[in-house]
Write a structure and sequence with these properties.
The protein is of the alpha/beta class. It has two domains: about 1-255, 3-Layer(aba) Sandwich (Rossmann fold), CATH 3.40.50; about 260-420, 2-enoyl-CoA Hydratase, Chain A, domain 1. Helices cover about 35% and strands about 25% of the residues. The strands form five sheets. It has a six-stranded mixed beta sheet with strand order 1-10-9-6-2-3, with helices on both faces. The chain has a six-stranded mixed beta sheet with strand order 15-14-13-12-17-16. The chain has a two-stranded antiparallel ribbon with strand order 4-5. The protein is globular. The two termini are about 30 Å apart.
Length: about 425
C-alpha cells in the first residue's frame, strides 16, 4: 500500500517537509525493533537519500541497526563520502556490499519467462539474489530509499532494482543488464514497464515473502530554477504503486523532448561524482536519442581515471572497448571472460553510438592511447574546458563567441533527452 505520496512538476519540498512526510509514513507502519536501510551510494548523492536516511536514524534511534548502501558493482563508499552524504551517523552502522560473494539466492525466474519478455532473444534463467543481510539479519523492516529517474538498463531506476541489483549478485546483475542491452536501450529508457522491470517484479511477486517487509521511500528530483536541485516528489509504500506514482512524475520532471537533434552536445561530469566511464557513460545513454546522425558528443570528464569500477571490469573494457553491438555480441560468443561477465558486455553495447554519432572524451586522468583504445576519440581536458567552461555555460542551447551552437548538459544523471521521432512509444 501507499503510505505517503506527494509530488508535482512545480513542487519543491523542503527538508522539513520531507522529514514530516517520512515520519508520517513511518508512524503508519507501527513500532519496529530492528531496521535496515538500503540507500544508494555516493553516485546518487543528489537523490536526497542521505538526508532521508539521517531522518530514519532520528526516528528509530537504536532500532536502526544497519545501513547497507546499494552499491551494485560500484566501489565501496569511503569514509569521506559517507560523511558528506550521511552526516554524523555512526560509521559502525554502515556495511559494504560484496556483489561477488556476499549474496543468497531466493529463487529463480525460469528461462521460459525470460524468452517471453525478451521476444525470444535470450534463453537463460535469472537468479533472484540479494545480500544475505536482508535475509539473515533478523530485521523486521527494510527501508529501501532512493530516487526514481530515467535509467538506461531498466527504463526507470529504483524500486526493487535497489534490492536485486543494488544488493544483488554477479549472475543476477550480469544477466539483467544483458537483457536490457539485447532488448535495446532506446526501447527501454524512460519507460516504467520494461523486460528488466518484469524480471524484478517476478522476483518480488514470487520470492519477496522470503524477506522482511520492504518499504520503499522514493524521491523525484529535478533542476531548480536558478540552479541547484529541487525535490519534486516523495512517495513511500510497500508495493508497485509507489514506483508507478514516482515514475509518472519523473517522466514529467526529468525527461526533455527537444525540438531538433543535437549537432554538437557538450556534457559535464562532476569530478566528485564521475570517476569512471562505467558511470560517466550516462552522458552517452541519456543523450543518444537526441543526437543527430553524424553529430558530435563531447564529454568533459575531469575526474575520470578508469573505465570500470573494479579491476576485473576495467580490464574487460580495456580489452574489448566500445565498438558496437555486432562486435560485442561476437566477442561474447567467442570469449569465456565476457560470457562470465555479461554486465560488462551490456555496458560495452550501451557505451557505443553504433557509429551513428561521434563520441569524444576529455578525461582528467586517462591517456589518449587509453581512450582511443577503448573506441572513443580523445580531447585534452584543459583545452576543452577552456573553450566550454562549465562555470559560464547554461543548461540548454548556447552560442559560442565564434557562432558555434551547442547543447550543454551539466549533469546527465538527472535527465533524459530525445527528439520525438526517436522516443518510441
Amino acid at each position: 500500500m501507499l503510505y505517503y505520496g506527494r509530488g508535482a512538476v512545480d513542487e519543491s519540498l523542503t527538508s522539513a517537509q520531507m522529514r514530516l512526510a517520512l515520519f508520517e509514513a513511518l508512524d503508519r507502519l507501527g513500532p519496529r525493533k530492528k531496521v535496515l536501510v538500503l540507500p544508494p551510494d555516493f553516485t546518487r548523492f543528489h537523490s536526497q537519500a542521505g538526508v532521508l536516511t539521517r531522518y530514519v536514524w532520528d526516528y528509530y534511534g537504536d532500532c536502526l541497526t544497519a545501513v547497507l548502501p546499494a552499491l551494485g558493482t560500484h566501489s565501496p563508499m569511503t569514509e569521506g563520502q559517507i560523511r558528506e552524504m550521511f552526516g554524523d551517523m555512526p560509521l559502525s552502522l554502515f556495511r559494504p556490499h560484496d556483489w561477488r560473494h556476499d549474496v543468497v539466492t531466493l529463487g529463480t525466474v525460469p528461462p521460459a519467462y525470460v524468452r517471453e519478455i525478451t521476444e525470444g532473444k535470450l534463453d537463460f534463467d535469472w537468479p533472484v539474489q540479494v545480500n544475505r543481510l536482508l535475509v539473515e539479519g533478523g530485521f523486521d523492516l527494510i527501508l529501501s530509499v532512493g530516487q526514481v529517474v530515467p535509467h538506461e538498463v531498466i527504463g526507470m531506476a529504483n524500486y526493487n532494482k535497489n534490492l536485486f541489483v543494488g544488493t544483488g549478485g554477479a549472475v543476477a546483475i550480469n544477466r539483467s543488464h544483458f537483457v536490457g542491452a539485447v532488448y535495446g536501450m532506446e526501447r527501454i529508457m524512460g519507460r516504467a514497464d520494461t523486460p528488466v522491470r518484469k524480471l524484478f517484479n517476478y522476483g518480488s511477486d514470487h520470492f519477496g515473502h522470503l524477506m522482511p517487509q520492504v518499504v520503499y521511500v522514493q524521491t523525484v528530483v529535478g533542476r531548480a530554477q536558478g540552479g541547484g536541485m529541487a525535490v519534486r516528489g516523495l512517495f513511500a509504500g510497500d508495493d508497485i504503486e509507489v514506483f508507478n506514482r514516482a515514475a509518472a512524475l519523473s517522466l514529467e520532471v526529468n525527461f526533455e523532448m527537444v525540438p531538433k537533434p543535437f549537432k554538437k552536445c557538450v556534457v559535464y561530469l562532476d569530478p566528485s561524482e564521475f570517476k569512471s566511464t562505467w558511470l560517466g557513460n550516462k552522458a552517452i545513454y541519456r543523450t543518444r536519442m537526441a543526437m543527430a546522425d553524424g553529430g558530435e558528443l563531447l564529454i568533459l570528464a575531469p575526474g575520470v581515471k578508469e573505465f570500470g569500477e573494479d579491476a576485473q571490469i576495467d580490464a574487460l573494457i580495456r580489452k574489448y572497448g566500445y565498438f558496437g553491438t555486432p562486435k560485442t555480441l561476437a566477442a561474447v560468443k567467442a570469449n569465456a571472460d565476457l560470457q562470465e561477465n555479461l554486465g560488462a558486455a551490456a555496458h560495452l553495447i550501451h557505451g557505443s553510438s553504433e557509429g551513428r554519432f561521434g563520441i569524444t572524451y576529455a578525461p582528467g586522468h586517462l591517456t589518449q592511447a587509453e581512450v582511443e583504445g577503448a573506441g572513443f576519440k580523445f580531447a585534452d581536458v584543459k583545452a576543452a574546458m577552456a573553450r566550454y567552461n562549465p562555470e559560464t555555460l547554461k543548461d540548454g542551447v548556447n552560442v559560442m563567441p565564434d557562432g558555434e551552437e551547442i547543447f550543454y548538459i551539466s549533469n546527465p544523471a538527472i535527465g533524459l533527452w530525445a527528439v520525438r521521432e526517436r522516443f518510441q512509444s
